[in-house]
Amino acid sequence: MDTEPAAKVVKTEEEWRAQLTPAEYEVLRRAGTERPFTGEYVDTKTEGIYTCRACGAELFRSDAKFDSHCGWPSFFTPLAGDAVIERPDYSLGMKRTEVICAACHSHLGHVFEGEGYPTPTDLRYCINSISLRLVPKEG
């Protein structure tokens, strides 16, 4: 049986509700999904690090972001292998792989493979903008 590492940032649901907006809470803590092409980072080209909006953990680099035209920010790899946790998701009557923040276990999105994108990994980490915060590169 696979076990996930324990969250490093642990808060009660009341604490999460107080910290996050209702829309952020719905996606990050209840595994919701923002509407396609509505997120602030869909077309962003700014260089920097994408962090978890809930806890600030570093998740993705801008140089791993690519245009997938799917309606959500897409990355071909996380910042580090232990930045995210991938787990089976059988919701909505299909098998997908959910991506959560390894530090606080907040929902980020899903990862898909074998779609034929010209990336080094053939993976598409399809991530909700509302789950992220971009920290621009200085200089």
From TrEMBL:
Reaction equations catalysed: L-methionyl-[protein] + [thioredoxin]-disulfide + H2O = L-methionyl-(R)-S-oxide-[protein] + [thioredoxin]-dithiol
GO molecular function: metal ion binding; peptide-methionine (R)-S-oxide reductase activity
Coiled coil segments of this chain: none
GO cellular component term, pick one: cytoplasm
SUPFAM superfamilies (alphabetical): Mss4-like
Limits of the MsrB domain: 13-137
Lineage per the UniProt record: Bacteria, Bacillati, Actinomycetota, Actinomycetes, Pseudonocardiales
Oxidoreductase recorded as keyword: yes
Enzyme Commission identifier(s): 1.8.4.12
Protein name: peptide-methionine (R)-S-oxide reductase
InterPro entries linked: Met_Sox_Rdtase_MsrB, Met_Sox_Rdtase_MsrB_dom, Mss4-like_sf
Top EC group: oxidoreductase
Keywords, alphabetical: Metal-binding, Oxidoreductase, Zinc
Keyword Metal-binding recorded: yes
Requisite cofactors: Zn(2+)
GO biological process, one term: protein repair
